Amino acid sequence: MLDQVDHYETSDLSETQRAALRLTDAYLVAPGAMTDESRDAIARELTPDQIVETVLKVMGFASDKAMVALGLDFDEIRLFDL
Predict the structure, then answer these.
(1) What is the C-alpha separation between 69 and 64, in angstroms, rounded?
(2) CA–CA separation, 45 vs 62, rounded Å?
């Protein structure tokens, strides 16, 4: 599965899964650079609720990167649900 995610554009993941990964990449790399064409393609595959859920989850997962980089992350893993 990780290999498929790493190469999602050429994987056999569903188009919905690939759209979620495109959204995730855009959010993490350059959210302001997302084109109207990309937005439209994602909106064709994901519902507004799925888009919001994906962005909120990515925000949650990415929020600890600064703490990890500074060596201030928690020793224990804390799981959360949205």
Answers:
(1) 9
(2) 24
pLDDT in tens, 33-66: 999 999 999 999 999 999 999 999 999 888 777 7
Q: Supply the pLDDT for residue 81.
A: 66
CA distance 64 to 73: 7
**DSSP reduced 3-state for 37:** helix
- Closest by CA position to 60, among listed 11, 12, 27: 27
Residue 20 or 70, more confident: 20
Give the C-alpha separation, 80 to 82, whole Å.
7
Q: Indicate the angle between helix axes 15-29 and 48-62, nearest 10 degrees.
A: 50
What is the rounded CA–CA span in Å between residue 11 and residue 5? 8
pLDDT reported for residue 61: 83
